[in-house]
């Protein structure tokens, strides 16, 4: 009897020890790292404004990767993720469309080519290429010239029927309609519809030099700025910009054309600025594309019988396809979306999912349906998920940190896994993480295999977000997502960096019960 009693006592002690360990481990999973908690306190951010999910990703013998929870702090709470929402849009896009997917811009005509002159109109029909930039438009011009066209005797017409009209409306959440991050979607989006002025002190004299891209056929600069002594801090506040038609343009043959567009700069520019970019969305979509297309054609050596005016129209049934131009592949586009947090590119990817899977006109609602269906196919159930435009530039989009991490784990088992992984900003190297964690990463320079942090960031006035992967000093891979929704969220960068630094060190070891 005494022996049985002793055996029972040992079993009870063992079970108590296991229970204590489980209790400690469960508690550690629900405890914010001390450095993170201290940062929140210093920056007056309450803990209930924060959510964190950390999963350790573990390779299996089958080749699949699974995960176990390391940290779970309010991870089931639906939060505004800001631009971290782009991860859902880009991952689903890569898996549904494939990394080699390319957008098509179709060029139709209602005329014929005779002796190097196209006698007829050009109709541009877009499918939402998010990166139809000057370099790509130059390729399109060469393709047109390869058809034997040197001169165009006709006008330009733009067919945007791929998108529903409401998704192209210029609505903003902050009233900053001239800012490049607020550009609305456009099936014929050219150069993000953004004029980029390069402003700097001339190398040869004490005056201000202003140049711009992309080239416009009827745009001139009126530079009235004064060079003043001073540092480059807050340089934008002293610049006044205006863009208006002015006078009558004269083409290369001396003929009168439509009124010139004059970009007028006035105010003060500090001598301490070596060079800055002033980006502005100041032209309507038709004017911007007309001026950009005409300039690209002229730069390629082409000419017009009359300068085009550019109008909206659907392609006539009788028009014939002249050229189908394919843009940059999706894998490269996703790099820009995630590394540099390009809003309009993400929005156009969401609309492309709708266009390809449900037909035109593409709507955000249809894009949402395509992604929701894809999530179910992946075995992911995201109750409460709200997709408003797929870019995170929204007050309404919502997802939980736990759901975002489930997405990151699922990504490791998809064909486009590495394309997606490499598209995320690399801390201390590029994108929106270029200047973050540089001191922390220097600690590991001696290691043969360097740790790395690949994180998509997100920010709005009252939101700070991180979501991505941390490869730790021991070689473990973690999925981490954390959102702060609070008026003081802008102070939360330090707390998020502390969380990532904690993971680089593999986090604290759980205390053993004694």
Q: Strand percentage, roughly? A: 25-35%
* CATH class group of the largest domain: Alpha Beta
Could you list the spans in which at least 5 consecutive residues all have pLDDT below 50?
17-27, 247-253, 510-514
What is the CA–CA distance across the termini? 29 Å
CATH superfamily of the largest domain: DD-peptidase/beta-lactamase superfamily
**Quaternary status:** single chain
How many structural domains can be distinguished in the coordinates? 2
Placed side by side, the strands forming the largest sheet appear as 2-1-22-21-20
Please, could you describe this protein's structure?
The protein is α+β, with helices and mostly antiparallel strands and 514 residues long. It folds into two domains: 26-100 and 331-504, DD-peptidase/beta-lactamase superfamily (Beta-lactamase); 104-328, no CATH class. The protein is 29% helix and 26% strand. It has helices spanning 2-29, 34-42, 86-97, 134-145, 285-299, 330-339, 343-358, 364-377, 401-411, 417-423, 438-442, 493-504, and strands spanning 50-59, 65-73, 78-79, 102-109, 112-114, 117-119, 122-125, 151-153, 156-159, 195-201, 208-213, 219-228, 239-246, 260-270, 276-280, 303-304, 311-312, 320-329, 399-400, 452-460, 463-471, 477-485. A hairpin with a 2-residue loop joins β20 and β21 (463-471). α7 crosses α8 (364-377).
């Amino acid at each position: 009897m005494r022996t049985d009693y002793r055996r029972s006592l040992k079993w009870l002690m063992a079970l108590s020890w296991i229970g204590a360990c489980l209790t400690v481990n469960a508690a550690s999973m629900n405890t914010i790292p001390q450095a993170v908690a201290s940062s929140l306190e210093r920056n007056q951010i309450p803990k209930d404004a924060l959510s964190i999910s950390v999963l350790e990703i573990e390779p299996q013998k089958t080749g699949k990767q699974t995960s176990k929870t390391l940290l779970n702090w309010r991870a089931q709470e639906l939060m505004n993720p800001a631009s971290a929402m782009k991860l859902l849009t880009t991952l689903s896009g890569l898996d549904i469309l494939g990394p080699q997917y390319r957008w098509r811009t179709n060029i139709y005509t209602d005329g014929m080519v005779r002796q190097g002159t196209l006698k007829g109109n050009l109709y541009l029909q877009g499918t939402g290429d998010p990166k139809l930039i000057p370099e790509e438009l130059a390729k399109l011009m060469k393709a047109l010239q390869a058809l034997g066209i040197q001169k165009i005797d006709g006008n330009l017409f733009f067919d945007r029927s791929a998108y529903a009209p409401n998704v192209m409306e210029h609505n903003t959440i902050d009233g900053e309609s001239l800012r490049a991050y607020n550009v609305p979607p456009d099936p014929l989006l050219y150069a993000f519809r953004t004029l980029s002025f390069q402003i700097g002190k001339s190398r040869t004299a004490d005056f201000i030099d202003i140049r711009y891209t992309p080239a416009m056929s009827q745009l001139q600069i009126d530079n009235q700025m004064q060079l003043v002594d001073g540092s480059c801090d807050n340089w934008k506040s002293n610049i006044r910009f205006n863009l208006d038609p002015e006078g009558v343009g004269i083409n290369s043959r001396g003929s009168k054309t439509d009124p010139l567009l004059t970009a007028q700069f006035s105010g003060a520019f500090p001598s301490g600025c070596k060079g800055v970019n002033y980006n502005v969305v100041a032209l309507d979509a038709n004017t911007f594309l007309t001026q950009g297309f005409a300039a690209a054609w002229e730069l390629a050596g082409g000419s017009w019988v009359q300068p085009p005016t550019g109008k909206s129209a659907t392609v006539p049934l009788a028009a014939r396809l002249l050229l189908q131009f394919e843009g940059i592949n999706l894998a490269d586009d996703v790099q820009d979306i995630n590394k540099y947090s390009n809003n309009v590119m993400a929005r156009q990817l969401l609309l492309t999912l709708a266009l390809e899977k449900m037909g035109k006109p593409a709507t955000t609602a249809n894009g949402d349906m395509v992604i929701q269906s894809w999530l179910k196919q992946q075995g992911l159930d995201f109750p409460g998920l709200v997709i408003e435009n797929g870019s995170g530039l929204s007050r309404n989009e919502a997802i939980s940190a736990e759901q975002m991490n489930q997405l990151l784990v699922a990504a490791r088992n998809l064909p486009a896994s590495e394309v997606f992984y490499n598209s995320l900003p690399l801390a201390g190297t590029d994108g929106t993480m270029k200047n973050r964690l540089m001191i922390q990463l220097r600690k590991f320079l001696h290691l043969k295999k360097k740790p790395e942090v690949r994180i998509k960031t997100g920010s709005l006035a009252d939101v700070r977000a991180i979501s991505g992967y941390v490869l730790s000093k021991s070689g473990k891979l973690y999925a981490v997502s954390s959102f702060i929704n609070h008026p003081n969220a802008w102070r939360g960068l330090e707390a998020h960096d502390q969380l990532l630094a904690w993971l680089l060190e593999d986090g604290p070891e759980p205390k053993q019960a004694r």
